[in-house]
Write a structure and sequence with these properties.
Length: 134
């Protein structure tokens, strides 16, 4: 799919943790520091925020792997609102379709106070699947 405004490939990104044993604080945006793909340069490794570059419909996925098999809960946030959550004690994935405007922000945060750690196989991705006007 090409984006007609700039004649670019559909905006997409995939990032994951580069290390094991990461224990984020509750409420903290997760920083996925290993960006494997980001064709619109819209993921910020300093804040953990993905800023939608174009209005459209996006398919978003969060995958988590928890160490020590204790329960951890993550939430996918869109402009401060919870879109979905994942609560797992080993591995879990959640996918959502999101209608976004240019400049909207998306991030993942930890919810609970558990002593769990996330593994480097925890990731966050998004891909535009349709323009708003189609």
């Amino acid at each position: 799919m090409e984006h007609k405004e700039e004649n670019l490939e559909a905006p997409s990104f995939f990032a994951e943790f580069s290390r094991d044993e990461f224990s984020p604080r509750p409420g903290q945006a997760l920083i996925f520091d290993n960006v494997l793909h980001d064709n619109s340069k819209s993921y910020d490794t300093e804040s953990g925020m993905y800023t939608f570059p174009f209005p459209g419909i996006y398919h978003v996925t969060v995958t988590m792997t928890v160490k020590r098999r204790t329960t951890m809960k993550l939430e996918l946030m869109h402009n401060g609102d919870v879109v979905t959550s994942i609560e797992e004690n080993y591995r879990g994935t959640s996918s959502q379709i999101i209608r976004a405007q240019r400049g909207d922000q998306l991030w993942v945060r930890k919810v609970n106070h558990g002593g769990s750690s996330l593994c480097k196989h925890t990731g966050f991705s998004s891909r535009m699947v349709s323009d708003m006007d189609t």
